Description:
Layout (H helix, E strand, L loop, with lengths): L1 E3 L2 E3 L6 E5 L6 E6 L3 H18 L4 H17 L1 H12 L3 H21 L6 E3 L6 E9 L2 E5 L7 H13 L2 E5 L5 H13 L7 E3 L4 H10 L3 E7 L2 H10 L6 E5 L4 E5 L5 H13 L9 E7 L3 H13 L19 H16 L3 E4 L17 E4 L16 E7 L2 H9 L6 E5 L3 H10 L4 E4 L18 E2 L4 H6 L2 E9 L2
Parallel strand pairs: 7-8, 7-10, 8-9, 10-11, 12-13, 12-17, 13-16, 15-16, 17-18
Antiparallel strand pairs: 1-2, 3-4, 5-6, 6-20, 11-19, 14-15
Helix pairs in contact: 1-7, 2-4, 2-5, 2-6, 3-4, 3-6, 4-5, 9-10
Amino acid sequence: MLYINGEWRQANSGETLDVINPATGDVLEQVASAGKEETKEAIEVANEAFSLWKNKTGAERGKYLMDIAQKMKSKTDSLAKTITLEMGKPLAEAKREVMSSIAYIEWYAEEAKRMYGETIPPSDPNKHLMLLREPIGVAAAITPWNFPMSMIARKIAPAIAAGCTIIIKPAPDTPLSAIRMFECFHEAGLPKGVANLLIGSAEEIGPELTGSSKVRKLTFTGSTAVGKMLIRDTANTVKNLSMELGGHAPFIVFEDADLDAAAEGAMATNFINNGQTCICTNRIYVKESIAEEFGKKLAEKTATLKIGNGMDEGTQVGPLINENSFNKVQSHVEDALKHNGKILCGGKPYERDDLKGYFFEPTVIASANDDMLIATEETFGPVAPIFTFKNEEEAIHKANDTPYGLAAYCFTKDLGRGLRMMNALEYGIVGINDAAPVTVQGPFGGYKESGIGREGGKSGILQYVEEKYVSIGMK
Ligand code: ADP
């Protein structure tokens, strides 16, 4: 179903798309698939709604968000189930995603009241200078399948808190999480046109959104390749952009680190969401002298991970989202073997009679080197390659030697070294002795080709406001 101007409806063409359970291959539901016409309509109604929505007080807007958060809380279990069914992640992870989505909505419900302006000291005593913060206008949000609920929450909450209206286009693989979320918006009585949902082909919907001069903001989470295309497509209408793009995270382990904590952390960042996270570790760099010991610890822990259908109790690793993802993982592992990589655990597809999806064993590869595809390309799957380094300088050089700059991790017990690494790593998110740095109050976003702008924290809402400078003569 599409949600436009406060109403649920089918596509004008009657077209639908199938939503597939990646653990079983079954069709879960058929949902309406929108095209150009519905997109134009959504832009019109979002634009009309903007003039009313922006004039509500921050407290009023925040109250709607609080009500939405309450609705979502009361449905936590069923929302989590929806995520697992259409995306594949284990139910426990899906539940954490629902709670994180609620946390973003609550955070921005509170921030809505705090859109402070500034007064600026003038150089002319007869002038009064001010900076006002105003909502940008209609925002379009294009979101991915790997976190089908929280990626929407991170965009919609600050946008509508700031006074923008919004059109969401979720990934076609995972539209059900978006629909269930929008049901909560509807039940909370969010005024019509403030949030609109378009499900359908990116080729139809994308150009309408990027080409419209009424859409003043585009916020995107997805691959760097599509992000670059969207940056080009929005050039003609000079939109304000937030881009959360790909990453290639290094995870550096020094000889003075707590090796068990580092191995535990590496396992978590590599295999959470089956490696399908833009801040998942892509390259583990371990000091030569401890590489063997570290590899053994990581492989032992990894081998205990329970693979299966995310709906089954105790599952820790679910299926990959689709065949393309599976093929990429397999080709990266084959390529690593060709370049003298050594499999410490995993390394092949996981097969079981009751599972029909694209499952791959969590894999640890030692003797990784720069000739491997995995050294430069995002695998987006459960593969942990271990590279080695000789000294701190080399670790920094290798970690930064990439066009990406989203997340980096470093494990060391030496305070001075930790601080040096913090300064040297060219990344938007740095975890020192912390493999799980993401939290609602922390700004999330990348350097270099990993993106533009930040989500979360104080920065998140500022992505949806214009700064108006006012100078008032007092004579
Ligand atoms: P992923 O690799 O995570 O699927 P993509 O960048 O391909 O990342 O997709 C992320 C989102 O971008 C999805 O909602 C997808 O439908 C959308 N998308 C893909 N191609 C385009 C496009 N040409 N225009 C607009 N949106 C697109």
